[in-house]
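In the lab's daily routine, each protein ends up as an entry in a very long ledger. A line of letters takes care of the sequence, but it says nothing directly about the fold. The three-dimensional part falls to structure tokens, numbers that each stand for a local backbone shape. The outcome of that step, for a single protein, is printed below.
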Amino acid sequence: MASTTDLRVAIIGFGPRALGALESLTAIAIKTRLSAKIDIFDPFPYPGAGPNFDPDQSDLCILNIPVRILTYVPPKFMSDHIPPFTEWVSDRFEQDEFPPRSIVGSYLTKRFQALCDAAPDTLDISHSNQKIIGLKRAGEGWQIKSGDGQMKTYNEVLLTQGQPETAPDPQLQRWINHAREHSLDLTHAYPANALIDFAQGWSNDTVAVRGMGLSTLDVLRMLTKGLGGRFVNGRYIASGREPRKILPFSLNGKAPSAKPATKLLDDRFNPTDAEIQLFETALGKTTSSNPDDALVEICRALSVPATRILSDVKSSDTAADVDLWLEIERRDPGAQDVLCAVDALKLDIEVAHGRVLPSAGYTIGQVWRKLQGELRSFFNTAEYPVETASALIGFDEAMKRYSYGPPVFAAEELLALIDHGIVSMCIVDDPAILLSAQGWQLIEDDEAMSAQVMVDAVIPSPALEKVRDTLMVECVKSGLAQQVEEGLGAKTDASAQLLDDANLPVKGLCMLGRLTIGSVIAVDGLNDCFGPSTVRWAEGVVDRIDK
């Protein structure tokens, strides 16, 4: 059994979520005078940042969260070593600006160093660039195997690999095979620098982009500004090096709605304390509800603040409009959005600037964003029937077209590219795609356009059955991890311990992050990395000592 003097912890993967977990464990270690050896394993050269926040990536990849929300207040034991992010960037960015992900990555790496500097002598923290490829039980603990063949034993192992290698979906796999057969260019949106380098020879090509989310907005920036283009006074000035034409498309053909442009405009969508309490009460009822009833409870609670806000701003939309919008959203997400892609984009820009009053849908979406903290706090510690959990996750995923929206300037850049003619939105809504030796032909209704290059900007799903990562495949095969259900991630308990095939906690083997979707909800936000889930994991580590 582990004692307070011989606890050994391995953290496999060390991006922002693992950094948050280590901060939580260190804070508890200081409070309890815990002594431990903590080994971090991650081949990425910037500990704490991870590839998504690579400090070396292009600054054209931006966050969808303004500086004012990115507080990330360090734990008290670190406060003399590094300030909150908002203070750290205060001389470079205004509060309403959306910073590059590379800037956040630089901060996170410095924050890891600050943690090491502030940690007590009772903690021995090391970082290795070895990739862990194997894991098995060793008595009461775990033995892990690194790429160089070394074996080490630990009492606790935390898996925080983020988005590991995943099998392509059938459509993408077919395209990969097609591109290989005909020597065509098919690449992913990231790493950003690699895409910019790859695109240097595409000036005579039409480039199709699969996806219409935030990643596609990054891609458009990389294929224009990244190749020398400029945006000036709402117009795009071409460099001549960008692709001849860019064709983004998705299953619904709609870009995500831009966030309100300023704090003042954004504050209009804040729910009151009573409305937050109403939402929390509704959440409490969902754990014993079937999927349909659970969504009805949630929507009733959303209707109250949305109706009040629309009345406050004197919108023409009423309570009846709110309820109808929510009814359709439960049944067929997005079916209410009847405007064409360009008209919807123009309207969202006007609403984001406060020049047009918000609709029921826009208002509901912003309220949903504001209630994410309450949603996550409740869902991530509750026990749900699988079907109900899946329904709530599906509702949240669909609402991301509002809750994960981009800054308004990104929407304005897209509109400028459309006006310039370099981006076409003629074939965006789930087009038929035919393959030819010259590339891909996209067809929608009577429109058809051909692309010589394909960029995949769709983030892989966290479905456990699709993961190819050697370590995770081994955990699944050995019964140490099981899937919540098809299309979702691994089952974990509230302290992040994996649940085995018998639905029992696997003592000391834990997982946080994207591959646990289903056990938790909405795992992609940076704020989640420094939230309650990491505290629960750290408390679980300490609770398991000598048990």
Notes: The longest strand covers residues 132-138. The first helix runs from residue 16 to 32.
